[in-house]
Amino acid sequence: MLSRKSRVSLYLIFFLLCYLYIWLFVKPHLIYHGFGTIILDVPLFSTGCWFLKDSLAVPGGLVIYAYGFLSQLYYYSWLGSLFVVLVALCLCELSRLHYIYAGHPRSSILHYFPAIMILLIYNHYDHPLAACLTLFIGLLFSFVIERVPLHQGPIRMVVFCLMAAISYCLAGAGGVLIFSLMTTLYLLFLRRDWLSAVLTLPAAAVIIWALAEYVFHISPKEAFMVLTPFCRDLTANMRILSKVLVVMLYAFAPVTVLLICLCRIIFRRNRNNSAAHTRKTKSRKTRAVVRRRGAILAYFKKFVLPAVPVTVMAVGLYFSYDKIHRQIVLMNYLSRQGRWPEVLALGKRLPKDIYNIYCNHDINREIRTPFCSHMRKKNLL
Amino acid sequence: MRIPLKKWRALLRANKVNKIFFDVYVEDAEHGWRKFQSISNTIAEDEIDCYVVYRLMKPVYNWWKSIGIYQRNLVNYDESLVMHGRSFGEGCLNCHSFVGNDPDTMTIGLRSAVYGSSTLLAQNGTVIKIGSKWGYTAWHPSATLVVYSINKVRQFFHTGRMEVRDVVDLDSALVCYLAEDRKAVCPPQLSEKDRLETYPTWSPDGEYLYYCSGPVLWKDRDKIPPENYDKLKYDLRRVRYYARNNSWGQVETVLSTEETGLSILLPRISPDGRFLLFCMCDYGCFPVYQPSSDLYIMDLSTGRYRSLAINSKYSESWHSWSSNSRWIAFSSKRQDGLFTRTYISYIDDNGKAHKPFVLPQRDPIYYDSLLKTYSVPELVSDRVRVSKSLLGRVARNKDSIALEVPITAATPKAVQSEPWRERE
Q1: N or C, which end of chain A has less CB nearby within 10 Å?
Q2: Which of A218, A224, A237, A371 to substitute to test the interface with B, most B CBs within 10 Å?
């Protein structure tokens, strides 16, 4: 729908705004300093081969390892923001490629929605990086298998099984879920390979079970949960809105592709019928109406459509913004820095009915501990 | 620099009892070449057992995750998993024990929020699940009888000291499991009302059971920490076992705290029956949390004991003997005071321990970044062959052999407690 130039301009504007918002307002270093306390997530990382070996011994090990490493980048807000935007951009572009492949040839704004969801989760000071990486691997694998020139069903199935096994090792059941769902949809709607489509999901389930039983030695129940949105480790520490957004993030690409494919089928039928009909009956008056409609559509495409992602993002950020939670996160950070007067000032601004154990602890440290006061008087803190 | 394994082994074989020297030189821009002090080691005459089985876990404070029992081939650097907590819902794996140094019979205690507390008994390739958790376990040499402890162990924290974690056994007793009859009995000698019995170990001939026993110094058996917890010291005792009629004799005190002034824990007797190796620390039942814990050796023929020269200022604990009684593997925190590592030392004919060395790794700086502790190193003569898939499946199985423990009012019931209060 949008020209290449407009698309690039929109990308630039959208992601520049995202970057500025995360860097200057969300401030990823607040998330970093809140790991393990205010933000219950604890992305551990250590150099050395034992940590890598340990990480790779579980399904989704590579994602967990990368998640641990990349979370350390949040220490510097500018770097953390850059990375968050990069992840969002990758997901955005990968989604666009999928939508084009599914038959939405000039996808213009749909692919921005995963990026918006990621931004909203960060706006809540939750940390969806593991989910993003999982999703990325799932989408990437499904795109790769569609691009591999394999025409025969059985060979395609073998390649799928191999890739599903690799995907499970790298991104757990979450990665396999996205990969197999997308592959099933393409087999069903684009390739019309019904048998392979029916076999894809059961094959993925068997692969997960076998790897869990003989490679990773984990219980089957757990094996099917690793890095899915229902996995405790992935979302248990998030707030409700973020949990919902993570589920939506996982579901968005498969659901969109499904809708695109369905729309293609429905509109193709209608177009065939109406084309035959209009060829015979189109009058001069009707042609004028069509032209007027075309002009409105062109205006809509040129000026309204590009504004939609930015507008949706702005509205979403406005409504999902939680001032109190931000104050709590900020207070935690200030106490880590030993900036006690600011902790106290922030504490005074908190509403009376707010109870947060970490804030209470920070304030107590300030007002009750003679040691802190003594150090402050001596300018040692 | 890496010495090829084959050449290294050939060198050791050809030079038994001889000394081996290492000269290390370094060069830097400022000082040029410099030589470190020469390292001199003696090549031992006796072989060590091929494998060591240990538990690898992060230091536990409030919660555990990712606990696994691993085995390490001492001939090379191969490490393989015996069982991992993730195979039964990130459960906790407790102490593993073998019949002597034979890996074919093994027990592992399990604790899981999902699958409950139980014990896995692996014997010659088959695994059964026993529906009660065994604490410190000692197999009779005949493999027909197991003595295990049941402990009401609770963890608590000190405000400030080198090791802030501490553990107390609010109540404990010893129970015998008869493997053939699949039933448990509780001899009164091993479950005295006013005493805490723990850490059982058998003499190699199977005639005596050695264990630690301390008085109960508190009335409230639920209070944490209890009063006088830091005054609790354990004696070393033994009791005669008559295998013919499955009966027990009178309890004897082998070494008392009155004599040592310290708490005596973790007795382990060498397979040749000559020496008894044990820990002593200032107080309590858990030497790994006591920096004062040191290793001592007792000559069982004379009853004389002495501290080993290999002790450090940090905690030494969890020791085991090789099958030829010439080597010990033990846990020590000497590297940094926090993480326990497995050390190996040679014990000569006179019971003298020689220069200990940390369990070698392919990467010499491996331990510098390792945020895990090695606990309960057990030397075994061969690799544990039971499959980890089978162990995991049995652990997840709902069916288990019900074990009625005939406990008296004095002994603790095996109840589920808040996990963070329990010890690592």
Answers
A1: C
A2: A218
CA dist., res. B381 & res. A288, Å (int) = 93
Of A50, A57, A214, the CB nearest to B389: A214
The CA distance from A4 to A9, in Å, is 9
- Angle between helix A153-189 and helix A129-147 axes, rounded to 10 deg: 110
Dihedral angle at the C-alpha atoms of B349, B353, B359, B360, nearest 10 degrees?
-80
Give yes or no for a contact between B210 and B197, defined as CB atoms under 8 angstroms apart: no
- CATH 2.120.10.30 maps onto chain B at 44-421
Cβ-contact B363, B30 below 8 angstroms: no
Q: Kind and range of the H or E element at B332?
A: strand B327-332
Are B88 and A219 within 8 A, CB to CB?
A: yes
Q: Which of A46, A43, A126 is nearest to A84 (CA)?
A: A126
CB contact (8 A) between residue A47 and residue B392? no
User: Is-contact B294 B310, C-beta < 8 A?
Assistant: no
Interface TM-score (ipTM) > 0.85: no
Helix (H) or strand (E) holding B150: strand B145-157
CB A203 within 8 A of CB A161: yes
What is the domain partition of chain A in residue ranges?
4-320, 323-377
Report which residue type is found at A268.
R
Beta strands in B186-282 (DSSP E): 195-202, 208-215, 235-242, 247-255, 263-269, 275-281
Burial of A153 (0-12, 13-18, 19+ CB in 10 A): middle
Going by the DSSP 8-state scheme, the letter that residue B230 receives in this structure is G
Residues of chain A with pLDDT under 50: 381
Options 2.120.10.30, 3.50.30.30, 2.60.60.30, 2.60.300.12; CATH for B44-421 is 2.120.10.30
B119-160 residue pLDDT tens:
999 988 899 999 888 899 999 999 889 999 998 889 999 988
Per the CB < 8 A criterion, the answer to whether B372 and B54 are in contact is no
Min Cα distance B307 → chain A (Å) is 35
Q: Rounded to the nearest 5°, which phi and psi values hold at A182?
A: -65, -45
For β-strands B235-242 and B247-255, DSSP reports them as: antiparallel
Tell me the chain A residues in contact with residue B372 when contact means C-beta distances shorter than 8 Å. 50
DSSP strand pairing (B51-57 vs B39-42):
unpaired
Q: Tell me if A89 sits within 8 A of A112, measured CB to CB.
A: no
Q: How far apart are CA A363 and CA A331, in angstroms?
A: 9
The predicted pLDDT at position B421 comes to: 42
Q: Which of A280-289, A305-314, B64-73, B249-258 has the highest mean pLDDT?
A: B249-258
Residue type, A202: P
Query: What is the distance of C-alpha A147 from the center of its chain?
Result: 23
**B161: phi then psi, degrees, rounded to nearest 5:** -170, 180
Burial class of residue B31 (count of CB atoms within 10 Å of its CB; 0-12, 13-18, 19+): exposed
Q: What is the pLDDT of residues A333-349, one digit of tens each?
A: 888 888 888 888 888 88
Are B392 and B85 a contacting pair, CB within 8 Å? no
**Closest partner CB to A46 (pick from B88, B365, B371):** B371
Determine the Cα–Cα distance for residues A160 and B333; give it in Å rounded to an integer.
Answer: 49
The residues with which B92 forms a beta bridge, in sequence order, are B111
Q: B82 — phi, psi (to 5°)?
A: -95, -50
Give whole-number Cα distances, B292 to A120, A195, B94, in Å: 53, 69, 24
From CA B329, how far away is CA B339, in angstroms rounded?
16
Give the DSSP H/E element, type plus range, for residue A365. helix A357-368
Spatial CB neighbours of A114, under 8 Å, sequence gap ≥ 6? A88, A91, A92, A95, A135, A249, A252, A253
Nearest by Cα to B231 from B221, B220, B218:
B218
The two three-digit tokens of residue A172, written as one number: 């757990």
